[in-house]
Amino acid sequence: MRRNVLRLAGNVCLLTAALGLTVPVTAGTATAEPTRTVRAAAAALPQFRSVRVPINGSFAVPGEMVHVQGTLDVTVITLPNAAGGGTAQIISSLDDTTGVGVPSNKKYYLVGAQRINAPFSAAGTTTLNVKPTFVLVPPTGAPSRVQPITVTVVVTSTGGIGSVTAAVA
């Protein structure tokens, strides 16, 4: 239902912008501010994108290398400011990701999800690189926190979401 409300609000803003309607400055204000169009208000709406990224690569743990393979679900929500820039919420969640130790050939599990907030610039396109923390479950011993994956998101100054990639470091 919330998605429908946001879609409806966006459509109303786009229609108003297409008609060239503006929001006038309040009479009697001390400073003369420029008239803010509905197009600027539409640009300040949250943007949303969700992608599934295949994960395949190796990283070191004490005593051996672990080769992991699986899927990372990445959801990006941008919350732009009216003047440009804002905050991006990057939610990374592992799905069916396992690993094999080299040379032990033992099975590892990589599990977890994390949300990271990162600011993006009003000056232009921003490339955000985040390293979410996941839990590596070894065949024996205690699980440990690891950051083997770098998620890269490209965000425009108005909150538009470009490419979303992930790589094992």
What report would you give on this structure?
It is a single chain. The chain is mainly β. It is built from two helices and twelve strands, in the order αββαββββββββββ. A hairpin with a 5-residue loop joins strand 11 and strand 12. The model is unreliable at 12-36 (pLDDT under 50).
Alpha-carbon Rg, integer: 22 Å
Residues in helix, %: 10-25%
The helix tally amounts to: 2
Oligomer: single chain
Q: In whole angstroms, how far apart are the ends?
A: 39 Å
Derived structural class: mainly beta
Shape: elongated
Mean pLDDT: 82
User: What about the largest sheet?
Assistant: 7 strands, antiparallel
The number of strands is 12
Uncertain runs: 12-36
> What fraction of the residues are assigned to beta strands by DSSP?
over 45%
The run of helices and strands is HEEHEEEEEEEEEE
What layout of secondary structure does this protein have?
Layout: H1 2-18, E1 22-23, E2 36-37, H2 38-43, E3 47-61, E4 64-80, E5 86-102, E6 107-111, E7 113-120, E8 126-130, E9 134-137, E10 144-146, E11 149-155, E12 161-168
